[in-house]
Write the structure tokens for this entry.
Amino acid sequence: MSLSFLRKKSIVGLDMGSSHIRAVELLPAQSGWEIGNMAAIETPADAIRDGVVVDPQSVGMAIRQLLREAHIGSNAANIAVGGGTVVVRTVQMPSMSEATLRKSIKFEAGRYVPSSVEDSYIEFEILGKSEDGQMDVLIVAAPKDVISSRVAACEQAGLEVEAVDVEMFAAYRGLVEVSASNDWRDKTIALVDIGASKTNMSVVRNGRFAMTRSISQGGNLLTEALGSYFKLSNLEAEEGKAQLTIKELIDDGKPKENPPLRVIQPHVDDLVREMRRSLNYYQSQLNDADQGGHVDLILLTGGGSKLRGLDEYMSHKLGVSANTLGAFSGPHMQAPESAETGAGEEWGLAIGLALRSDPAWLKNAA
């Protein structure tokens, strides 16, 4: 999936999150790609709110420092937008040419965009046409202020913006499309990216996005709950969270009274409930199994997915197999030996953005 709002030229994939900014530069390798340079830096406090960069100058300075320390010499970047203000919707429309659709897309998008379409960038992709005179169209709309604020931060860092992608499109590219498990592309999967302040969830059927939703809770809620209950600093709460194994709450023979787990369990269960609502909605739209209403697999990624045993806990609660997926889980993406990334759960988005302009990738994806 490669919808884009802006296009120039690009080298670096830049993920601007509410807690960290990540940059990736890719190099081709014999069995896929390897990371030329990669680095992360903490996002300046309160500089990004609800996807909007409210302090482009401080974020731009952080990006400049990040690129310098990572020895990334690129002067252009691919960036992404996501969250509740970004609309991703697949709709059926009467069959027409792309040129005709472009003239009328604002009227169709106006049915789904919560704000004025004049205040949004709107893009679309025709997914396919049927014999009954209808066609499936993927519509994407993003607020202009969200995009312009991120472009402004890049300009402060001395970067041109080559493309503005959708976060979940880029994450899918960097995690699933490069994976050795090519059979995932022929199934219906739910890709769940658990970030610091929000969780993005997409249902992808046979490689096409059927539904995308943003849930306004992420890993920070668990950290804050532990810190508040046990009177810990943020760092102490993060370190404590890393020692917990949530699946102990469902394991037979394990003690059920674990105070730290009981503190975070309500927040994890809230996320599970929101995921169940999303899955139920998707299945209600396609309740015939032959139409792909059944979700085969849940793939968990993002920093929040690193909570130990979360995949097994969600499998138990949702009745769907769940796996944790990182950018370096398979053989096709290699991290530098010096990088302490683990499986790379936080790096899928930045890598997907870097792949967006890779010539070999564009040739293979065409």
